[in-house]
Task: inverse folding
């Protein structure tokens, strides 16, 4: 069901990786930060998007390519994949699995693109693998926590996390 989006993520990440490896990624980070802030505020306001099942076959690939381009440009793979996946109205566990799959594909595509550009080599590759282990432990802990809190609480913390990430990226891009 999600393979067109995953394919688009790979293509977009490879195409956009030149931005993050270039010297002027600050503006891209600041813009992404602002978009994340807006998205988090909309989510905290409880605005709901919906994609009809008939439209999935048309939207998956472009959403994936856009997500890949944002990933390639900034190293962050939240937009527009997360709002799109939420708009599919998946059940909570299916949404978490879809998000995990999207993040895994984005991470792998970005790693391959950076390695191909000669940026991810030697010590940096080892540190990245160590960080990946930390992310996997975090996903495991998140799954345990998710089973113990309400969907409303989970959603609130999710958007507060995106808001914090957006503020961080916007400030980092500006400074």
Result:
């Amino acid at each position: 069901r999600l393979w067109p989006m995953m394919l688009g993520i790979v293509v977009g990440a490879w195409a956009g990786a030149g931005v993050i490896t270039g010297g002027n990624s600050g503006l891209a980070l600041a813009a992404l930060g602002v978009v994340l802030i807006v998205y988090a505020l909309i989510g905290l306001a409880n605005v709901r998007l919906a994609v009809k099942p008939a439209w999935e076959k048309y939207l998956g690939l472009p959403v994936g390519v856009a997500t890949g381009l944002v990933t390639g440009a900034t190293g962050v793979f939240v937009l527009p994949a997360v709002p799109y996946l939420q708009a599919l109205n998946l059940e909570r566990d299916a949404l978490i699995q879809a998000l995990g799959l999207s993040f895994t594909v984005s991470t792998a595509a970005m790693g391959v693109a950076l390695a191909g550009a000669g940026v991810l080599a030697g010590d940096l590759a080892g540190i990245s693998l160590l960080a990946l282990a930390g992310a996997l432990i975090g996903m495991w802990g998140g799954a345990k926590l998710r089973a113990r809190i309400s969907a409303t609480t989970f959603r609130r913390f999710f958007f507060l996390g995106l808001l914090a990430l957006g503020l961080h990226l916007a400030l980092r891009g500006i400074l």
